[in-house]
Amino acid sequence: MHFGQRERPRGLPLLFGAMEKMSRVTTALGSSAISGRTMFCHLDAPANAISVCRDATQVVVAGRNIFKIYGLEEEQFVEKLNLRVGRKPSLNFSCADVMWHQMEENLLATAATNGAVVTWNLGKPSRNKQDQLFTEHKRTVNKVCFHPTEVYMLLSGSQDGYMKCFDLRKKESVSTFSGQSESVRDVQFSMKDYFTFAASFENGNVQLWDIRRPDRYERMFTAHTGPVFCCDWHPDDRGWLATGGRDKMVKVWDMTTNRAKEIYCVQTIASVARVKWRPERKWHLATCSMMVDHNIYVWDVRRPFIPFATFEEHKDVTTGIVWRHQHDPYFLLSGSKDSTLYQHMFKDASRPVDRANPEGLCFGLFGDLAFAAKESLISGDTNRKPYPGGDRRYPIFFFKKPDLTEQFAHVSSALSVFESSLESRCMDWFVKTARLYLLGGKPFAELCDHNAKVAKELNRPQVSTTWTMLRLMFSDPANLSTPGPNNISKLGNLPLMNSFSMKEMGTESRLDRSKGEIRQDSIHLEPGNSLINSNNDENEETEGSEGQAEYMFGDAELDDDDLYSIELENQAAEEQEYTLPQEAFPLRHEIMDNPSVPEHLQQDKADSPHASGNEAEVMCLTPTESFSLIAISQPLFSTHLPAHFFCPVVREMLSHYAEQGDVQMAVSVLIVLGDRIRKEIDDLTQEHWYMSYIDLLQRFELWNVSNEVIKLSTCSAITCLNQTSTTLHVNCSNCKRPMSNRGWICDRCHQCASVCAVCHHVVKGLFVWCQGCSHGGHLEHVMNWLKSSSHCPAGCGHLCEYT
C-alpha cells in the first residue's frame, strides 16, 4: 500500500480547492512567543479528551455530552464553535478521544463510543461539520491518531482488539492490524520513523507495527504488569517510547536496540491514564491518573521518586492533557471530569521538592535501620565518633559531581545504617501466634481463654492478661467458666452464689496488735445497692494506706478469711444455728451518713500516727465480743456492668497495641469482639490495621491465615481483597477444548475432565498437575505416588517432580 498514489487525478483540483477554502492561521510561535496566564473555564459536561490546533490558538474539548472549540485568548477562554448540533445528536457526537490535525487546521478526528471513527471539516459552510464516517469497528474506539506528516492517513485503536488505517480520500479502511490480544488502549505514530506506529494493549503488551505490513507486528514486549493505558514517542529522540499503565508506573523504553530496553522508570501513586513528553525538555514528561489522584505531574525521569512540578487545580480526575505548542514548554492544557478546562503556566506550578523532607528513614527486612540526611546536619553532631572503615554503624558519605545542566540543588548526604540484634529480629512469636490463634467458630469465652493460653505459652504475659480481661468484661456471668486453683481473685464465684453463711468470729481472728496491722477488709451494704468490695492479699488495705475502708451493717467487721470459709455441704445446718430471731430486726431506720463511733475505738483511732482526715470520718470497728451472723438468701450485687461501659477502655487498649506495632493483637481482638467494639472505631482506622496485618501475614507466607482474616473482616475494602481473579478457566484433558458448562463432564467429548491419574476418579478438590506432561490428580495421591516412584502415574514416561 502506498499513500502517495491518487486514484482520481482529475479530482485533485477540486480536493485542493476545498482545502484552500479552509481558514489557515500562521504558526504563532514563528513570529512571537505564546503569552497568557493560568486560567480556566467551566464546561457544559465532563471532558474525555482535548486537543490543540497547530498554531496554539484554539483547543477542542470532546466528551460524551460535549464537543466544542474554545479560543485561547490572553485573559480567558472564549467559546468559538459548538460541533454538537441537532435537536437529538447521534452517538457519533459522543467522543472517547479527539485529535486535531497538525498539518490541516480545519481537520479533526474523533473516536466515538459506538465504534465509529468520524472526521470533521471546520471549513464547511453548514452547521454540521461532519465529513467522513467509518463504522468498521465493532466496539468502542479508544484512540485516534493522525500521521505527523501524511495528510490523509488516520489510525484508530478499538476495544475489539483491532487497529485500522484509513485513507481519508476513501470511504473505508485500507489496512487492518490484529494484535491477537485484548483491547487496544492507545496508538501513536512515531515522530521520526515514517512507517512505524506503537500500540498498547490491556494485557500489558506493547507492539510496534509497520504500516506496510498489516499481517504481523515488527516487535512485541511486555511493558507492564497490567493494562497499558497510554504511550508517547519522544519528540526529539527517535528511539524513546514512554508507556503508562495500571501498575502505577511510567516506563521509558529504548527501541533502538534489538530488544526493548527499559532505561527509566517512574513510580506514581495511581494508575497512569495519559503521558506526554514536555517540548524542548529532553528529560521531562507530564502524567495524569485514571482514578483517585486529581493532580497533573511533570517528572524528570532522572529523578523518579518525586515530581519536578505539580498542577493541583482540578477537583476531579484529569482526563486529557496536551502541551499548548510543540515548541513551547511553559503552557499546559488539561480537561477533567469536574467539567473544567485549564491552562496551566509552568511558573505557577508547585514544586514538591521545596516541601519535601530532606531526611530519609527506612527499615530493612531483618530490622536494620537506614537513615539519610544532609551532611551539614550530620557533621553538626559533636558526639559522633570518626568513621571507621567497614563499620556499618557510622555514616557513609556520597558526593555528586556538579552538572551544570541539572536544575536540582547539589547537596551531599550521609547515610547511617544501624543493625539490630539477632534476638530482636526473631519473629517466631508472630508466626506461631498467627497459626495458633482462634478468631471464630467457638463461643466468645472459649476464644478468649484459648488465645490467652497461646499468648502465655509464648511468654507474652501482658497479651495473655488482656485476653483474660476481655473475657471478664464482655462475657455473660452465667457463662463464665469456673476459675481454676490459680485464680487470683476470690470474687470469681460470688456472682453465682445465691446464699452463704458466716461463722462466729472472735477477737483474736480479727485483731493482731502485736504485728501492728489493722485489717480493713470488709463488706459494705448501701440502700438500694448490694455491692461487695473484697480485697485479696495483693491489694488489701494495710496500716498506713490512704484508701478508705468500707463496712457492713455499720457496727461489725468481717475477716475475709472467715467470709470465704464456706462449707456448702453444711450450709443448711449453719443457717439454722446462726440465724437471728425475727424480733432481732427492728423496723428499718434511716442510715446516718456519719454513725457514732464506739468509745473503745475512738482512742485507738487517735493513737494511730497514720490516721488522716478522711479516715477520721469513717469507722474502723474491731468487735471485742462474739456476734451471731446472718444468712443472706439473695445475690449480693448485680451480675455485671454493661458491655458498653468497657468500650472506651478497650478502644484505647487497641490503639495502644497498634501504636506499639502489634497490629496482630489489634486485629485479632477486633475480630473476636465483633460488633461489641467495631462501632467504637472508625472504618479508616480499622482498614489501616487490617491492611497492615494482612501485609505482614503475606510477607511470612501465611496465606491461609491471611485469607481467614479477610473473610472475617467486615470492612468492605478488605472483604473484596480475595474476590478478585477468582475465575478459573478449565480445558478438557481429552479434547483440550474449554469446558463450557459447570459440571465435570465435557459437553463435546462427553468425558470426565480433571481425572486423577492415580485413582482415576474426578478431582473435585485440590488438583495438582505436572507442568511437563500435564497429568495430575488429587494432591495426596500424587504426593504418595512420587514418594516411591519418579515416573508419571499416567504411564506417559515423564519424570515428574513434586516441589
From TrEMBL:
<dbReference type="GO" id="GO:0006914">
    <property type="term" value="P:autophagy"/>
</dbReference>
<keyword id="KW-0863">Zinc-finger</keyword>
<dbReference type="GO" id="GO:0016239">
    <property type="term" value="P:positive regulation of macroautophagy"/>
</dbReference>
<keyword id="KW-0472">Membrane</keyword>
<feature type="repeat" description="WD">
    <location>
        <begin position="221"/>
        <end position="263"/>
    </location>
</feature>
<dbReference type="GO" id="GO:1904263">
    <property type="term" value="P:positive regulation of TORC1 signaling"/>
</dbReference>
<keyword id="KW-0808">Transferase</keyword>
<dbReference type="GO" id="GO:0034198">
    <property type="term" value="P:cellular response to amino acid starvation"/>
</dbReference>
<dbReference type="Pfam" id="PF00400">
    <property type="entry name" value="WD40"/>
</dbReference>
<dbReference type="GO" id="GO:0061630">
    <property type="term" value="F:ubiquitin protein ligase activity"/>
</dbReference>
<keyword id="KW-0677">Repeat</keyword>
<keyword id="KW-0458">Lysosome</keyword>
<dbReference type="InterPro" id="IPR001680">
    <property type="entry name" value="WD40_rpt"/>
</dbReference>
<keyword id="KW-0853">WD repeat</keyword>
<dbReference type="GO" id="GO:0008270">
    <property type="term" value="F:zinc ion binding"/>
</dbReference>
<keyword id="KW-0833">Ubl conjugation pathway</keyword>
<keyword id="KW-0862">Zinc</keyword>
<dbReference type="InterPro" id="IPR015943">
    <property type="entry name" value="WD40/YVTN_repeat-like_dom_sf"/>
</dbReference>
<comment type="function">
    <text>Catalytic component of the GATOR2 complex, a multiprotein complex that acts as an activator of the amino acid-sensing branch of the mTORC1 signaling pathway. The GATOR2 complex indirectly activates mTORC1 through the inhibition of the GATOR1 subcomplex. GATOR2 probably acts as an E3 ubiquitin-protein ligase toward GATOR1. In the presence of abundant amino acids, the GATOR2 complex mediates ubiquitination of the NPRL2 core component of the GATOR1 complex, leading to GATOR1 inactivation. In the absence of amino acids, GATOR2 is inhibited, activating the GATOR1 complex.</text>
</comment>
<feature type="compositionally biased region" description="Basic and acidic residues">
    <location>
        <begin position="508"/>
        <end position="524"/>
    </location>
</feature>
<dbReference type="InterPro" id="IPR036322">
    <property type="entry name" value="WD40_repeat_dom_sf"/>
</dbReference>
<keyword id="KW-0072">Autophagy</keyword>
<comment type="pathway">
    <text>Protein modification; protein ubiquitination.</text>
</comment>
<feature type="region of interest" description="Disordered">
    <location>
        <begin position="508"/>
        <end position="546"/>
    </location>
</feature>
<feature type="repeat" description="WD">
    <location>
        <begin position="134"/>
        <end position="176"/>
    </location>
</feature>
<dbReference type="GO" id="GO:0061700">
    <property type="term" value="C:GATOR2 complex"/>
</dbReference>
<dbReference type="GO" id="GO:0005829">
    <property type="term" value="C:cytosol"/>
</dbReference>
<keyword id="KW-0479">Metal-binding</keyword>
<dbReference type="InterPro" id="IPR019775">
    <property type="entry name" value="WD40_repeat_CS"/>
</dbReference>
<dbReference type="InterPro" id="IPR037590">
    <property type="entry name" value="WDR24"/>
</dbReference>
<protein>
    <recommendedName>
        <fullName>GATOR2 complex protein WDR24</fullName>
        <ecNumber>2.3.2.27</ecNumber>
    </recommendedName>
</protein>
<dbReference type="GO" id="GO:0005765">
    <property type="term" value="C:lysosomal membrane"/>
</dbReference>
<comment type="similarity">
    <text>Belongs to the WD repeat WDR24 family.</text>
</comment>
